[in-house]
Amino acid sequence: MNKKRMLSGITTTGKMTLGNYIGAMKNFVALQDEFEMYVFVANLHGITTPIDKDILRKNIKEMVTLYFACGMDPKKSTIFLQSDVLEHTQLGWILTCNTTIGELQRMTQFKDKSTKVKSENGTEFIPTGLLTYPALMAADILLYDAEFVPVGKDQKQHIELTRNIAERMNNKFGEMFTIPGDYTPKVGSKIMDLQDPTKKMSKSGANPKGFIALLDDINEVKKKIKSAVTDSENIIKYDVENKPGVSNLLTIYSALKNISIEEAEKFFKNKDYGILKDEVSNVVVNLLEKIQLKFKELFNSDLVDSWLEQGAEKARKLASKKLTKVKNLTGLNYKRK
Ligand code: AMP
Ligand code: TRP
Fold first, then answer.
1. Distance between CA 79 and CA 299 in Å, rounded?
2. Which one of 79, 117, 120, 239 is most buried, counting C-beta atoms within 10 A?
């Protein structure tokens, strides 16, 4: 039986966080047997907000290595660097021309990020790419006829737009794209900031104590979890509205233990916040130690580069076929119908 195809990516705007791991990476790894996985490092998306070139280089190198250190298997999945497959930007342009400014301006991420760029840099310099980014993301997905896109909650709106663009193109020019569905994890689709648990844990979070990066020093990680914001009730219960900090710790615990929130609540019944933090710390540290060990092994070897090359080659085969079809149907390729 043919496996269904899944595709996803992570942007290189910063360090890979525990949020990225739980919301995205962990699922890519778990789904590699069941699905035909295409995952890429979204470096073209990584320049939609201003970024220093040396930092970008470092982010990309760390992220590509982390994909494998987290358990992506080059024998099972196709793993590549977005800019290595030129078709992404060509299809991205075609889709940009079939997307309206209104649609793009409605994207929550655009609104958030453009406000942030303004307030951080005190400038009106909002890169156009920040606005048009969802059209490139649509191209990433539609090039491969992905049936599912595993992402965290914050990306659902972009997948919805991708579906709209795909349907529009199919109706206007003839059947060319598979309509993708999203695939968010049951537990952990939105891991929150440890210091402000009403905000998403983010790579670019202002307070470094609020997020855990997969390559953080282990002692720092322990400290961060110890100082995570909770409340004064000392009752361990999942209640996002009234107990966002405790709920977030429960979520991290459940996701990494692969149990339901209810099971985690049962485990922590009558225990105090000290124990909750110790247990969360143990599972997180356990995970990070494993990842960091593998990361060190891979970082200075040539293996990662050769896996990426092999991945790009495989990705290009599908991508170029799809792009040719799109060019034929849209009239860009004037010799073919
Ligand atoms: P980004 O870092 O924005 O490129 O996100 C890469 C993937 O990680 C996407 O699927 C996001 O939805 C997911 N993700 C990012 N931050 C979180 C978070 N705090 N909790 C859960 N998933 C996340
Ligand atoms: N935009 C995604 C994010 O910031 C990353 C991404 C880029 C992506 N292209 C994609 C995710 C295609 C899934 C599919 O989280």
1. 16
2. 79
Closest C-alpha to 288, from 22, 60, 55: 22
> Is residue 84 classed exposed, middle or buried when 0-12, 13-18 and 19+ CB atoms within 10 A define those classes?
middle
Distance CA 201, CA 60 (A): 20
In the residue annotation, 113 being an active-site residue is answered as: yes
The H-or-E segment that residue 37 falls in is strand 36-42
- For residue 200, the cross-strand partners are 192
Give the span between the Cα atoms of 300 and 203, in whole angstroms: 24
Cβ atoms of residues 214 and 18 within 8 Å: yes
**Predicted structure pTM score:** 0.93
What domains, with CATH codes, occur in the chain? 5-188+302-330 (3.40.50.620), 208-296 (1.10.240.10)
Q: Long-range contact list for 263-266, CB < 8 A, 24+ apart?
A: 264/238, 265/236, 265/237, 265/238
Single-letter amino acid code for the residue at 179? I
Q: How far apart are CA 337 and CA 334, in angstroms?
A: 8
Shortest-distance atom of ligand 1 to CA 42: 4
Distance 7 CA to ligand 1 centre (A): 14
117 CA to centre of ligand 2 in angstroms:
20
Q: Cα-flanking dihedrals φ and ψ of residue 8, to 5°?
A: -160, 170
Q: Is-contact 245 197, C-beta < 8 A?
A: yes
